[in-house]
Design a protein that fits this description.
Largest sheet: 7 strands, mixed
Helix content: 25-40%
Family: Belongs to the Maf family. YhdE subfamily.
Number of strands: 7
Order of helices and strands: EHEHEEHEEHEHH
CATH architecture: Alpha-Beta Complex
CATH class: Alpha Beta
Distance between the termini: 21 Å
Number of helices: 6
Bound molecules: thymidine-5'-triphosphate
Pfam families: Maf
Keywords: Cytoplasm, Hydrolase, Nucleotide metabolism
EC number: 3.6.1.9
Protein name: dTTP/UTP pyrophosphatase
């Protein structure tokens, strides 16, 4: 049993990201990292999620940098349709408009994940194609009333009721939920945190 405080910190207020990181069994604590998530004029979606993710990671890092081996994990998710970035809906009208745009077609979900430490920062981008069935306006209104779309990029949650809209996905389910676990595990392993733990001596 390892009682030392974890060296890994998740810079996120998202309960989904914490659940996903718990799913792969690594020890971590959580940090709050407030950053400006405004899209810059002309900014490409991939550049946007990379920038915001790096900002979240560095904002978290300033809080733990006193510990030399500390590492900060951060992520950002955007739903992209017709080259437009859909963040979290501002209000009901915004959410219903998002559902109308997503209805009956394919969109992309981009999630960047970054690991920041004393040695610098590494970043990976996950891209998933998601195809929605047609969603009638009345159904979108009932979905809004459940409260689920409120704090979700694109105004839906694949892990919740929103799953009924998802006809198909190609890519990373965990990436759509907010933390792509394949990319996360790769970054952690590169930084000396193998997800399945270090092999016993002499058996690597
Ligand atoms: C598309 C989709 C998004 N989401 C969520 C994941 C993220 O929490 C949220 C996207 O918003 P983000 O701005 O990426 O993250 P956040 O503000 O919730 O958390 P933090 O910045 O503190 O890390 O949308 C789902 O939970 N399911 C989905 O299917």
């Amino acid at each position: 049993m390892d009682d030392a405080p974890p060296r890994l910190h998740l810079a996120s207020r998202s309960p989904r990201r914490a659940e996903l990181l718990e799913q792969i069994g690594v020890r971590f604590t959580r940090l709050d990292a407030e950053v400006d998530e405004t899209v810059r004029p002309g900014e490409a979606p991939g550049d946007y999620v990379r920038r915001v993710t790096g900002d979240k990671g560095r904002a978290g890092w300033t809080q733990v940098a006193a510990r030399a081996d500390a590492l900060v994990l951060a992520a950002d998710t955007a739903v992209v349709v017709d080259a437009c970035i859909l963040g979290k809906p501002r209000d009901r009208a915004d959410a219903l408009e998002m559902m109308e745009r997503l209805s009956g077609r394919e969109h992309r979900v981009l999630t960047a994940v970054a690991l920041v430490g004393a040695a610098g920062e590494s970043l990976r981008l996950s891209e998933t194609r998601v195809r929605f069935r047609r969603v009638a306006p009345a159904e979108a209104a009932r979905y809004w009333a459940t409260g689920e779309p409120r704090d979700k990029a694109g105004g839906y949650a694949i892990q919740g009721l929103g799953a009924v809209f998802v006809a198909a996905i190609a890519g990373s389910y965990s990436g759509v939920m907010g933390l792509p676990l394949f990319e996360t595990a790769t970054l952690l392993a590169e930084a000396g945190i193998p997800v399945l733990g270090a092999p016993p001596p002499g058996q690597d």
